[in-house]
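Input record (one chain):
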Amino acid sequence: MNVKPTLIKANSIGDAAIDGLFGGLFAGAVMGVIILLAGLLVGESPASMLSRLSSGQAATPLTGILVHLAVSAVYGMVFCTAVYILPVSFLKKIPGWLAGLFFGIVLLALAEWVLLPGLRSSLLELPLWILLLGHGMYGLVLGMRVYPKFTQ
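The corresponding structure, as predicted from the sequence alone:
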């Protein structure tokens, strides 16, 4: 018997938000690994890189991980909720990876020019290419992981 797996479109905006929460967590974990590896290339220790992910003065690697994953989950929910609202005919015109990549770049712009300066975050001390790579990968993974559910 040949059974094809199928994706089911979220039935409600709440379902979309939950899809986004888990998709955002997964994409945030991928982004975290990418940022850690890129940090090693510029001589940053993993503990230092993880501590930068928290906005507090007494940041620890654990708080950095937890803050990063929480923010990633929230932004995943925002992405999926926004995608849920769009008509399927529009969504089918745009590949998921491209929609996600665009979202990741928008998040980078928001972080770079609004959020991080306001928090006086030490992430601003990192080379921009690290943040671009991390946010780009976050968006790509998020888009490829959750976007197909909305185009069926």
